[in-house]
Write a structure and sequence with these properties.
The complex is a heterodimer of chains A (about 300) and B (about 260).
Chain A (H helix, E strand, L loop, with lengths): L1 E14 L5 E14 L3 E5 L6 H8 L7 E6 L2 E2 L4 H5 L2 E5 L10 H11 L4 H14 L15 H12 L6 E5 L7 H18 L2 E5 L3 H7 L2 E6 L2 E6 L1 H8 L3 E8 L12 E7 L2 E6 L2 H14 L3 E8 L3 H9 L1
Parallel strand pairs in A: 3-8, 3-9, 6-7, 7-8
Antiparallel strand pairs in A: 1-2, 1-4, 4-5, 9-10, 11-13, 11-14, 12-13
Helix pairs in contact in A: 3-4, 8-10
Chain B lengths: L2 H21 L3 H22 L4 H33 L3 H6 L4 H31 L8 H29 L4 H13 L12 H8 L2 H11 L10 H30 L1 H4 L3
Helix pairs in contact in B: 1-5, 2-3, 2-5, 3-5, 3-6, 5-6, 6-7, 6-9, 6-10, 9-10
The chains are: A alpha/beta (about 300), B mainly alpha (about 260).
The complex binds adenosine-5'-triphosphate and magnesium ion.
């Protein structure tokens, strides 16, 4: 069962009344998201991630293509769809002089909650998002991290089946980011929520997402699990060595070695397959009388995949 | 949507606007200062010019109507303005509500504010100039105030439409254009003194009819036949038109991305 089925979505923004400039933000994007999955959209600035999320959340009308979300066509059935989804962004903004409890209460009422049910929901969300100490603080007096938590609480007010998170941990300190990520993972595990998020933090994508779609210049370039993407891009594994003598020029010419670089006293050799190449490499070094003082083997990081794809 | 959900969505907007009004330090200024200054200065002017009590009431009714309409229409425009100012517009349009909930909810708060102001200005006029605004009795007063509120609703919704269409840069333009219309409504003079083309414009403004009907109670010959029915009918047409414009503007903002630009 698909939560999202978008096909050939395009969107071009026009700005300026007199001789408008056109920006093609999406050029034929197709994306499917199964129910209960966490899918990450990665891509450089201006790639079209927010645009895509906004279209899926009915905030923006696509120029062409078909978009079905939770079984509703976004063009024809937006009103019913809106009850079942919600969205939060990492740069949130709400009415400045309203207090935290009042903001969540306002949106709760918009989604049809009232009386005791509303009070219970507001209490629950304030508790969940660790806002108890700030319930009566005006929004304008909150720190970035607290504002983001208010946004997250607001986005859960209708217990959505589908949640869009646009850079949910933007500008948060590592400790808070870890907690927010844990919340997101819990939402899926405990409530079966489908979550589509964008992020610039590769750790986050690697940790949270079942699947990643890589967007660049308004098109999806690659799609898969973090592991699949790493293999698909064929970045190879990295064997890092601390050698004595430290520089060994012939290492780059060894079969299976794609490239070598010195990074902070370590020689980092990127090879097609670490398990296959490591014994040969050690044997050759030993034969040349080079002492191997230390060794580390790692898979490429998602960040390297990102850099490769964004190039 | 069920009736309950309809009412709740309207109530949500009422609570929000009321909270915002109570937080605004300038609330009392907005609500009281300028209207009081207006009534006092116009009242003193009528004395200086030695107007008859009838003429003085004619002018003062116009002043009070203008203040009431102003306060109420500003509140209606808050349906989008508050969120435009704080860049949070997208959240309320992500929720499963329609523009009717926004315009009705903010209108209810606007009527409460406008109603309070009307009573206050009436009391002031009575105390300072012995002018009895409430003399015609509660039904004519209620109809007149309703006329002011309807007019304010229409103007406020048009302002919402203009801002949703052009963004917050259009705010000043939106107010200027709708207030221009108000000035033509015969606030301080009978419509008959206006030159022909302007009089036609005045005759197209609902407030003109409600002023006309109310002034009849102070001894002025009505200029229109069945002014109340005409005012209500015109209001219904404009209210529908204003809502249609707001709706169309919102659809357009979703298409152009302006809705996103007006939010973080
Ligand atoms: N409301 C808008 N009006 C006009 N142009 C827009 C609007 N929103 C986005 N764009 C343009 O569309 C393109 C895609 O923008 P989008 O915000 O979707 O990128 P993004 O992938 O979210 O980038 P970032 O990582 O910086 O958030 C950009 O060139 C941007 O300038
Ligand atoms: Mg973005």
């Amino acid at each position: 069962m698909l939560a999202i089925d978008a096909r050939d979505v395009t969107k071009t923004f026009k700005s300026g009344w007199f001789r408008p400039t056109r920006t093609a933000a999406l050029r034929g994007v197709s994306l499917t998201v199964p129910r209960g999955a966490i899918v990450g959209l990665l891509g450089p600035n201006g790639a079209g991630k927010t645009t895509l999320l906004s279209i899926l959340a009915t905030l923006l009308t696509p120029d062409s293509g078909s978009v079905t979300v939770l079984g509703h066509d976004v063009a024809r059935d937006a009103a019913r769809l809106r009850r079942r989804l919600n969205m939060a962004s990492g740069r949130p903004s709400f009415l400045w002089s309203l207090r935290v409890g009042e903001i969540i209460g306002f949106y709760g009422r918009l989604y049809g909650l009232s009386g005791r049910q509303l009070r219970r929901r507001v209490d629950e969300l304030i508790e969940l998002c660790e806002l108890s100490a700030h319930r009566r603080t005006p929004y304008s007096e909150l720190s970035t991290g607290l504002k983001q938590r208010v946004a997250l609480a607001k986005s859960l007010v209708n217990d959505p089946e589908l949640l869009f998170l646009d850079e949910p941990t933007l500008g948060l300190d590592p400790d808070v980011s870890v907690r927010v990520r844990r919340h997101i993972a819990d939402l899926r595990r405990e409530r079966g929520m489908t979550i589509v998020l964008t992020t610039h933090y590769m750790r986050e994508a690697d940790e949270l997402c079942d699947e990643i779609a890589f967007i660049k210049a308004g098109a999806i370039l690659a799609r898969g699990t973090p592991g699949e993407l790493k293999r698909q891009i064929r970045l190879g594994d990295v064997i890092a060595l601390r050698l004595d003598p430290p520089a060994v020029p012939w290492l780059a010419e060894t079969p299976g070695v794609l490239r070598c670089a010195e990074v902070a006293g370590w020689i980092e050799c990127t090879v097609d397959d670490a398990e296959k190449r490591l014994p040969d490499l050690l044997r050759a070094l030993h034969a040349e009388g080079v002492v191997v003082r230390n060794i580390r083997v790692r898979e490429p990081e998602l960040e390297e995949v990102f850099v490769e794809l964004a190039r | 949507m069920s009736w309950r959900a309809e009412l709740l969505a309207v109530w949500a907007v009422v609570v929000r606007n009321a909270l915002m009004a109570s937080r605004n330090v300038f609330f009392f200024f907005e609500l009281l200062f300028w209207p009081i200054v207006g009534v006092l200065s116009i009242g003193l002017m009528t004395r200086f010019l030695h107007l008859t009590p009838e003429q003085a009431s004619f002018v003062l009714i116009g002043t009070i109507a203008l203040s009431v309409v102003n306060v109420c229409q500003l509140e209606v425009a808050y349906a989008v303005l508050l969120d435009v100012w704080s860049k949070s517009l997208k959240h309320q349009f992500l929720a499963p509500i329609g523009i009717r909930h926004l315009t009705l909810g903010s209108w209810l708060v606007g009527m409460a504010r406008g109603g309070a102001l009307f009573l206050l200005l009436a009391a002031l006029g009575w105390w300072a100039f012995d002018f009895r605004v409430l003399a015609p009795g509660w039904l004519p007063v209620a109809v007149f105030v309703l006329g002011c509120f309807l007019n304010a609703w229409i103007v406020g919704v048009f302002v919402c439409a203009l801002i949703t269409l052009f963004g917050n840069r259009a705010e000043a333009f939106a107010w200027a254009s709708v207030n221009l219309v108000l000035v033509l409504a015969g606030l301080y003079y009978p419509v008959s003194v206006l030159p022909e083309p302007v009089a036609t414009v005045a005759a197209a403004i609902p407030l003109t009819y409600f002023l006309d009907a109310y002034r009849a109670h102070f001894g002025f010959a009505p200029e229109f036949r069945a002014p109340i029915a005409a005012g209500l009918a015109l209001s219904a047409v404009y209210a529908a038109l204003a809502h249609w414009c707001f709706f169309a503007a919102l659809q357009r903002a979703r298409r152009t991305g302006l809705l996103l630009k007006m939010s973080e």
